[in-house]
Amino acid sequence: MPPSAKKRLEWRKTARLEFIEAIAYYADLNPTAAQRMHNEIHKAARSLIDAIPAPGRPGRKAGTFERILSRRTPFILVYREAKGVVHVLRVIHHARKYP
Predict the structure, then answer these.
(1) Cis omega (within 30 of 0) for bond into 53
(2) Domain containing 37 — which CATH number?
(3) Is there a domain that residue 37 lies in?
(4) 84-99 tens-digit pLDDT
(5) Separation CA 37–CA 52 (nearest Å)
(6) Closest to 74 measured CA to CA, from 50, 53, 55, 93
(7) 48-76: per-residue pLDDT in tens?
(8) Position 99 in a domain
(9) Domain region containing 29
(10) Does 36 fall in a domain?
(11) What pLDDT does 95 receive?
Protein backbone atom coordinates (compact mmCIF):
# COMPACT_ATOMS: atom_id res chain seq x y z
CA MET A 1 0.00 0.00 0.00
CA PRO A 2 1.51 3.36 -0.97
CA PRO A 3 2.34 5.73 1.92
CA SER A 4 -0.37 8.15 0.75
CA ALA A 5 -3.09 5.53 1.13
CA LYS A 6 -4.19 5.54 4.77
CA LYS A 7 -5.46 2.37 6.37
CA ARG A 8 -8.75 2.46 8.24
CA LEU A 9 -9.30 1.19 11.78
CA GLU A 10 -12.47 -0.66 12.77
CA TRP A 11 -13.30 -2.06 16.20
CA ARG A 12 -15.41 -5.20 16.29
CA LYS A 13 -18.25 -5.22 18.80
CA THR A 14 -16.50 -7.81 21.01
CA ALA A 15 -13.30 -5.75 21.15
CA ARG A 16 -15.22 -2.57 21.94
CA LEU A 17 -17.08 -4.27 24.81
CA GLU A 18 -13.88 -5.81 26.20
CA PHE A 19 -12.20 -2.40 26.07
CA ILE A 20 -15.08 -0.63 27.84
CA GLU A 21 -15.33 -3.33 30.53
CA ALA A 22 -11.57 -3.31 31.18
CA ILE A 23 -11.41 0.46 31.58
CA ALA A 24 -14.49 0.46 33.83
CA TYR A 25 -12.90 -2.22 36.04
CA TYR A 26 -9.66 -0.29 36.41
CA ALA A 27 -11.50 3.02 36.89
CA ASP A 28 -13.05 1.61 40.06
CA LEU A 29 -9.58 0.67 41.36
CA ASN A 30 -7.50 3.60 40.15
CA PRO A 31 -9.00 6.26 37.86
CA THR A 32 -5.58 7.65 36.91
CA ALA A 33 -4.30 4.23 35.85
CA ALA A 34 -7.54 3.60 33.94
CA GLN A 35 -7.09 6.82 31.97
CA ARG A 36 -3.46 5.94 31.18
CA MET A 37 -4.52 2.47 29.99
CA HIS A 38 -7.31 3.98 27.89
CA ASN A 39 -4.81 6.30 26.22
CA GLU A 40 -2.21 3.55 25.69
CA ILE A 41 -4.74 1.15 24.14
CA HIS A 42 -5.94 3.86 21.74
CA LYS A 43 -2.35 4.78 20.89
CA ALA A 44 -1.52 1.12 20.18
CA ALA A 45 -4.61 0.75 18.01
CA ARG A 46 -3.65 3.86 16.02
CA SER A 47 -0.16 2.44 15.54
CA LEU A 48 -1.75 -0.44 13.64
CA ILE A 49 -2.83 1.90 10.86
CA ASP A 50 0.03 4.40 11.02
CA ALA A 51 2.92 1.92 10.73
CA ILE A 52 3.78 0.02 7.57
CA PRO A 53 3.80 -2.86 8.16
CA ALA A 54 1.56 -2.86 11.22
CA PRO A 55 3.43 -3.74 14.43
CA GLY A 56 2.61 -7.09 15.92
CA ARG A 57 3.38 -10.76 15.94
CA PRO A 58 1.51 -13.60 14.25
CA GLY A 59 -1.57 -14.42 16.32
CA ARG A 60 -2.48 -17.62 18.06
CA LYS A 61 -5.49 -17.95 15.75
CA ALA A 62 -4.88 -18.33 12.04
CA GLY A 63 -5.05 -15.10 10.08
CA THR A 64 -4.68 -12.83 13.11
CA PHE A 65 -1.92 -10.72 14.61
CA GLU A 66 -1.28 -9.59 18.17
CA ARG A 67 -0.02 -6.22 19.35
CA ILE A 68 1.27 -6.56 22.91
CA LEU A 69 1.11 -3.43 25.02
CA SER A 70 3.48 -2.43 27.80
CA ARG A 71 3.83 -4.02 31.21
CA ARG A 72 1.96 -1.04 32.69
CA THR A 73 -0.92 -1.66 30.28
CA PRO A 74 -1.32 -5.45 30.42
CA PHE A 75 -3.39 -5.98 27.28
CA ILE A 76 -3.07 -7.58 23.87
CA LEU A 77 -4.85 -6.23 20.81
CA VAL A 78 -5.83 -9.06 18.48
CA TYR A 79 -6.37 -7.82 14.95
CA ARG A 80 -6.70 -8.79 11.30
CA GLU A 81 -5.87 -6.67 8.29
CA ALA A 82 -7.68 -6.90 4.95
CA LYS A 83 -8.00 -4.52 2.01
CA GLY A 84 -6.65 -1.48 3.86
CA VAL A 85 -8.81 -2.04 6.94
CA VAL A 86 -7.40 -3.11 10.31
CA HIS A 87 -10.08 -4.88 12.33
CA VAL A 88 -9.46 -4.92 16.09
CA LEU A 89 -11.03 -8.24 17.05
CA ARG A 90 -10.25 -8.51 20.77
CA VAL A 91 -8.78 -6.56 23.69
CA ILE A 92 -7.45 -9.23 26.04
CA HIS A 93 -5.84 -8.85 29.45
CA HIS A 94 -2.52 -10.76 29.68
CA ALA A 95 -3.88 -12.87 32.57
CA ARG A 96 -6.82 -14.18 30.55
CA LYS A 97 -6.61 -17.46 28.72
CA TYR A 98 -6.73 -16.97 24.96
CA PRO A 99 -7.74 -18.67 22.72
Answers:
(1) yes
(2) 3.30.2310.20
(3) yes
(4) 899 999 999 988 888 7
(5) 24
(6) 93
(7) 998 766 678 999 999 999 999 988 899 99
(8) no
(9) 8-93
(10) yes
(11) 87
